[in-house]
Design goal:
This protein has 498 residues and is of the alpha/beta class. It has helices at residues 6-13, 57-62, 101-123, 137-149, 166-171, 192-199, 215-218, 221-228, 230-233, 248-251, 314-327, 332-341, 370-385, 406-419, 432-443, 454-464, 482-489, and strands at residues 4-5, 16-18, 25-26, 30-31, 42-44, 67-70, 78-80, 127-132, 154-155, 180-184, 204-207, 240-244, 261-265, 278-285, 290-296, 303-310, 351-355, 360-363, 392-396, 424-428, 447-451, 470-474, 494-495. The chain contains 17 helices and 23 strands.
């Protein structure tokens, strides 16, 4: 963040100073976990499910925090903001915030972030790139960061810091030398992305797809599209909207923005589509489902790209990142080299490891929705297809936040597994949706086992997997199925996937 005095911060966020001289300079950054506090930082005291950040404020100051953002006087240097009252929102940030104390602190973080971004945009030309979509946001955010960082210092969120807390937290990591901020933007309702765009106004907006993630909150894919399109509505007339031409609901968002539009596509006929400017040809997959393709950009010589990340769906994500690079004026050669050099930056997303005994683990356990499940199962099927007599193992948990569609979507997964000829299914955990998946898979003749927890899943696969087998591990975040992948890899020597 930019340096401000304590008094300037208080005036900006509408709070009162306690126990600190208003002329004290504050450099930041802002931290909400007291364990991450460094000398001179700001500690944001947020309520949580188990603890309240206000209880850790004194310790944070003792560890070097120069200022606390708080909703009550806690006897340390602080800006105290009046609680905003209980929020009418389904956002996770407000789930344990009965009086709006957390909402007040988050609003203060948002105002600090906006002031920082606006100042640096004017002073140094900082550009904000916003990325949204039902699936692939984090992978694409990481690809974009790889493309941009060769052109200048780039800040991107760790993992999926993409909500009311993670978004301003990431925006406040920018500094005087930052050229690009890549902001992953999620939503659980109409208006959420518009709110995030107010915190860090994007110059470039990327919309990947409209799927079924959070369908329970939105009620329909059309409502999801309405929310995702808020990103391109927020763009200035001199910005750039980047849209996936292969998704009709996304492509139609070109009518909702004042900015010029770039569309990208992986379709076989993309070169002949006058609405598509960026496309891939000659797409091929290697033995572990890493894609190579020819990148076609407007006015540039086609470039060869060989991705080091796994899954056919990554080609579309790479094209989105290439479009961002093109929009900021990078050469096709630079973009292709950056994409080819990129390795997975966020944990538990299509992380493919092969043990010395030849068993390959595809760890895509960070999150799951119907679209990403199909992509993961496709990668599993492709990888095992090159291995004669090998078995395919899908270790799956639930897909969360699907509302009334949960049972049907989990039953539909059985059809996907069957059509991809997956030989073994291990369903982890209980509940109606998981039971529906297991029963539907059994009816289709898939060798199915239901287990109570991750330890039991590790045991089943460890006993049954043979050299050469391929194991996909995937579920929504709450299931924490990365423990299965970690357990299957623990103590094993690994081969390099060449």
């Amino acid at each position: 963040m930019i340096t401000m005095t304590a008094g300037e911060i208080a005036a900006l966020v509408g709070g009162e100073l306690h126990h600190i001289d208003p002329d004290t300079p504050i450099e930041g950054p802002v931290e909400f976990d007291s364990r991450n506090v460094t000398r001179g930082s700001i500690f944001a005291a947020l309520p949580g499910a188990r603890v309240d950040g206000h209880d850790f404020a004194a310790g944070a100051v003792a560890d070097g925090a120069a200022l606390v953002l708080a909703a009550r006087d806690i006897g340390v240097p602080a800006v105290v903001i009046k609680p905003l009252g209980k929020q009418d929102s389904n956002a996770e940030a407000f789930a344990h915030d009965p009086d709006g104390a957390g909402a007040a602190v988050l609003a203060a973080m948002g105002k600090l972030a906006r002031a920082t971004v606006d100042t640096l945009a004017e002073r140094t030309g900082l550009q904000v790139v916003g990325v949204t979509g039902s699936a692939g946001k984090t992978s694409t955010k990481d690809l974009i960061a790889s493309v941009l960082q060769g052109d200048g210092p780039t800040v991107a969120p760790p993992g999926s810091f993409n909500n009311e807390l993670g978004h301003p937290y990431t925006a406040l990591r920018v500094g005087q030398d930052t050229k690009y901020l890549v902001a992953e933007m999620s939503a659980r309702g109409i208006g959420h992305i518009a709110h995030l765009a107010e915190i860090a106004p994007p110059k470039i907006g990327v919309v990947l797809n409209v799927g079924s993630a959070h369908l329970g909150e939105f009620g329909s894919r059309e409502n999801i599209a309405q929310a995702k399109g808020e990103l391109v509505e927020a763009l200035p007339a001199d910005g750039t909207a980047i849209l996936n031409a292969d998704d009709d609901l996304v492509s139609a968002m070109d009518k909702r923005t004042a900015a010029p539009v770039l569309k990208y596509s992986t379709a076989a006929h993309a070169a002949a589509n006058p609405q598509v400017q960026i496309y891939a040809t000659d797409i091929q997959l290697d033995e572990v489902a890493r894609a190579s393709f020819t990148l076609n950009l407007p006015g540039a010589t086609p470039q060869s790209v060989r991705l080091q990340i796994f899954g056919l769906h990554q080609v579309s994500n790479a094209l989105a990142a290439a479009a961002v690079g093109h929009a900021v004026g990078l050469s096709a050669q630079h973009i292709a080299q950056a994409l080819s050099a990129h390795t997975a930056a966020s944990a538990n997303r299509m992380d493919v490891r092969t043990r010395a005994d030849g068993v390959t683990i595809i760890n895509d356990s960070y999150n799951a929705n119907p679209e990403s499940m199909r992509a993961g199962i496709a990668a599993l099927a492709y990888t095992v297809s090159a291995r004669p007599d090998a078995n395919s193992w899908a270790v799956l948990g639930q897909m969360g936040e699907l509302g009334d569609d949960a049972i049907g979507e989990h039953e539909a997964l059985a059809e996907v597994l069957d059509s991809r000829h997956i030989s073994h299914l291990v369903v982890v955990g209980d509940g109606p949706a998981r039971s529906a998946l297991a029963k539907a898979a059994q009816k289709r003749g898939i060798n199915t086992v239901s287990v109570a927890d991750t330890d039991a899943a590790i045991s089943v696969v460890s006993r049954g997997a043979r050299p050469g087998d391929v194991v996909l591990v995937k579920a929504s975040y709450a299931d924490r199925l990365w423990r299965v992948a970690e357990g299957l890899l623990a103590g094993s020597e690994l081969k390099e996937n060449k």
